[in-house]
Amino acid sequence: MFKILYAEFLAPGIKRFVIEAPRIAHKYKPGQFVILRLYEQGERIPITIEHSDPERGTIRIVVQSIGKTTNLLNSLNTGDSILNVVGPLGKPSEIEKFGTVVVMGGGVGTAMAYPTAAALKRAGNRVISIVGARNKELVILERELREVSDALMITTDDGSYADKGFVTDKLRQLIENGARIDLVLAIGPVPMMRAVAEMTRKEHIRTIVSLNPIMIDGTGMCGGCRVLIDGKSEFACVDGPEFDAHRVDFAVLVQRNSMYRAAEQKSMEEFQRETMKQLETVHAGQTGACAVEGDGR
Amino acid sequence: MTPPTKQPPKQKSANPLPLKERMKVPRQHMLEQSPLERATNFTEVNLGYSEELARQEAQRCLECPKATCTTDCPVGVKVKEFVQLIVAGDFMGAAAKIREDNVLPAITGRVCPQEDHCEGGCLMGKKVQPLGIGYLERFVADYEQGHLDISNLPKASPTGKKVAIVGSGPSGLTAAGDLVQQGHQVHVFEALHTPGGVLVYGIPEFRLPKQIIREQIDYMRAMGVEFETDVVVGKTVTLDELMEEEGYDAVFIGTGAGLPQFMNIPGEHLNGVYSANEFLTRINLMHAYEFPKYDEPMLDLHGKQVAVIGGGNTALDAIRSALRLGASKAYVIYRRSEAEMPARKEEVEHAKQEGIEFRVLTNPIEFLSDGMGWLGAVRCMRMELGEADASGRRRPVPVQGSEFDLPLSVAVIAIGTGANPLIQSTTPGLNTNKRNYIEADAMTQRTSRRGVFAGGDIVTGSATVILAMGAGRRAAKSIHEYLTTSGEW
Predict the structure, then answer these.
(1) What's residue B454's pLDDT?
(2) Residue B252 pLDDT > 70, yes or no?
(3) Cβ neighbours of residue B45 closer than 8 Å, sequence gap 6 or more
(4) Which one of A216, A240, A275, B420 counts the least CB within 10 Å of its CB?
(5) For residue B394, what pLDDT is reported?
(6) Residue ranges in chain A modelled with pLDDT below 70
(7) Distance CA B27, CA A270 (A)
């Protein structure tokens, strides 16, 4: 059992959790993720870690309600617990002094880009951050990103805040204005990462994306998260989640992520029908067990 | 634990059946679910012996002076002695006798390839069918489960030494059970959310019910073994941190060979192509076959054509699961002939009875798309057997021009696994071989790192539950020696 010490909505459908997980907090490096499971009948889903506090033994995650599990998770509050949290998984982001780095976050991907942006800044890079959201309400971590960025640009799809447009519009402007860019880090929806990759490929700008395929164990055991990198299978959980964007086969990623769409919809419909009952199931499992002896049965 | 049982006098057997009569009694069959019935459910295939059947079978034992059944057992179960206790009707005594050497009898009684070990060594097997040692072990273990009170197991006096076991599969559990009985404090780390390793994620319910594993692990908890799930050693904590910061005096690595191998042929990324590990993990660990009661989904196999590539026990577990999930056609595609199949004979027989088709001497060369990103067919070549290869088996050679396409919706690749590198890559000074398996002494299971022992598939590559248990047992003995002597390395 992993206790939720604090939970707050950052935007409609986007919630931030502070979770007690001393082992993970101690080992975490930017770019890594956890896999969590909410209750006995739950699935395992990967979520990027947004921040850790080794002294307090806590980690932070930011979750957007999309399917059943994320909706259920976002129904939990301070004082609730998560049955299983394992990590930190995946390779940490490559942090060194590259020069000028453009960090791009799309939607909730902003929360995943933020810790790496902060680490890149600490490593002495000039960090230009570009954040995109559908509308004003969904712009998250603006203050945090501003603190670690030399420049911050924001776009909204509908123009309800900052500039109307997409993050790629801002990147194009930078390129057209002749800005020197040594590295681009893009984290967000697959179409966004793909568009960034296409744009920087022509310019020969090294670009990193963080992939989020379907996973189960997260330790390299099942091979379900395999992605095609230069035509070869690699496992996002242990070889990634960050990859050179110009080597990623995004079409295969999109196709593999659609594998369980029918089942996911069925789960979601059931969740919407019986939200309260589902929540009771989660809460029912939260009595007494502790992390050491809790084997998740 | 039960009080020590009376040993039958050495010379005189409790067996009422005269020696020369014993060969005439046929081996008692274990009741099974009928193939038609079981092909649609995940309930266990074998249903167990009754007390009467068990005693009848036990009476067949010839009580050989040289017990090859025991010497052929990787953990050295005293077969002759426990079988005689069954004859005498002392089933709890028989269970205690097995437990002296094997802490997981309900599991080995179900999944051991007995034909390669105890029953392969049984003298009776030279003339008639060997003694049903596996069935008897299973009977005794199940009897014990129904009659034992685990609330007050005797505890050895504490030695003050702490041992970390990395991985809760067969080798780790065996080492943990043996070490806790020596009085060491034993803490087992498991990466997944449930202890049991491959027993939980790999072996399906119809061969090894999860309830059995839970009971065996509860028994180990009652013995004093601590379990901590959700810890990936190498990621969540390193081996060095365990020894230096958390005060473990010794570590046993039993992480298994959990890195799935793919065929590296075109089309492997298509939707519908699984590794056996993923396919079985979804079903066994995540209960995807109970979707939507459980959240983890899997593809609907009803009316679908499904094939597994490979001929081992994992392959058969996968395809028999697919059949139970409604597949209309279920194939085993194997590049050698049936004689070379590494799977247990009983499993092959069970699979055939259930209606699984064996396409042997057949090798896939490409997965073909249905045009929408999903698997539509597999292109195969027919093979023939040539000269013997390094494994001593005849090498399969493709027959030129023999390509054909087999329509298929789901393919499961079960051609073996490799070494998971998470510990090796984060533990300086831990020697590995060229395939990245951990090097460990075959007798002591010692690695190149002081205080660090390893055993099971992470040392040998994919093998069986009982071989891993044998390694766990040797490691426990060796760890105990290390902890109770000067600790030379």
Answers:
(1) 98
(2) yes
(3) B32, B33, B38, B206, B207, B350
(4) A275
(5) 86
(6) 287-297
(7) 52
Read off the pLDDT of each residue in B275-300 and give the average, rounded to a whole number.
91
Q: Calculate the CA B208 to chain-centre distance.
A: 9
Contact residues, chain A, for B228 at CB < 8 Å: 291-293
Whole-angstrom distance, CA of residue B93 vs CA of residue B145? 13
Q: What is the ipTM of this complex?
A: 0.91
When scoring A29, A221, A254 by the number of chain B Cβ atoms within 10 A, the one with the most, hence best to mutate, is A221
CA B88: distance to chain centroid? 30
pLDDT at B11 over 70: no
Beta strands in chain A (DSSP E): 2-11, 14-20, 33-37, 45-53, 58-64, 81-82, 84-89, 100-106, 126-133, 151-156, 163-164, 183-187, 207-210, 226-229, 232-235, 242-244
B-chain residues within 8 Å CB-CB of A89? Answer: 232, 235
CB atoms inside a 10 Å sphere around CB B265: 15
User: What does the alpha-carbon distance between residue B316 and residue B280 come to, in Å, rounded to a whole number?
Assistant: 11
pLDDT at residue A289 in the model: 43
Using one digit for the tens of pLDDT, what is the confidence trace for B384-432? Answer: 999 888 878 888 999 999 999 999 999 999 999 999 899 999 999 999 9
CA B434 to CA B447: how far, in whole Å? Answer: 15
pLDDT at residue B4, rounded to an integer: 56
Pairing status of strand B404-407 against strand B375-388: antiparallel
Return the ∠ at Cα B233 (arms to B231 and B235), rounded to 5°. 90
A99: left (phi over 0), alpha (psi -120 to 50) or beta: left
| Percent above pLDDT 70 for chain B | 98
Q: Where are the beta strands (DSSP E) in B310-403?
A: 329-334, 357-360, 362-369, 375-388, 394-398
**The pair of three-digit structure tokens given for residue B75, joined into one six-digit string:** 């953990």
Contact A222 B214 (CB under 8 A): no
Report the side by side order of strands in the sheet with B185-189.
B226-228, B185-189, B162-166, B250-253, B452-454
Q: Which pLDDT does position A294 carry in this prediction? A: 36
Confidence band, pLDDT 50/70/90 cuts, at residue B130? very high
So what's the pLDDT on residue B7?
A: 53
Among A23, A37, A256, the residue with its CB nearest the CB of B269 is A256
Closest-approach residue (CA) in chain B for A263: B297
Closest-CA distance, B108 to chain A, in angstroms, reads: 22
For residue A297, what pLDDT is reported? 31
Spatial CB neighbours of B171, under 8 Å, sequence gap ≥ 6: B252, B254, B256, B455, B456, B457, B468, B469, B471, B472, B475
CB contact under 8 A, A89 and B235: yes
How far is residue B453 from each of residues A278, B233, B440, measured CA to CA in Å? 44, 15, 7
DSSP class of residue A91 equals: P
In terms of CA atoms, which chain B residue is nearest residue A91? B235
Closest C-alpha to B105, from B219, B14, B267, B183: B219
The whole-chain average pLDDT of chain B stands at: 93
Kindly compute the dihedral angle of the four CA atoms of residues B45, B48, B53, B55, in this order, to the nearest 10 degrees.
140
Chain B: closest CA distance from residue A294 (Å):
7
Preferred mutation among B295, B374, B423, B458 to probe A, highest tally of A CBs within 10 A: B295
Residue B438 per-residue DSSP state: B
Looking at residues B128-157, what average pLDDT do you find? 91
Give this prediction's pTM.
0.92
Interface test with A, best of B235, B263, B422 (most A CBs within 10 A): B235
Do A25 and A53 meet the contact criterion of CB atoms below 8 Å apart?
yes
Q: Is the dihedral of CA B303, B306, B312, B314 positive or negative?
A: negative
* Strands A100-106 and A126-133, bridge-based pairing: parallel
Instruction: Look at residue B2 in the predicted model and tell me its pLDDT.
Output: 52
CB contact under 8 A, B282 and A216: yes
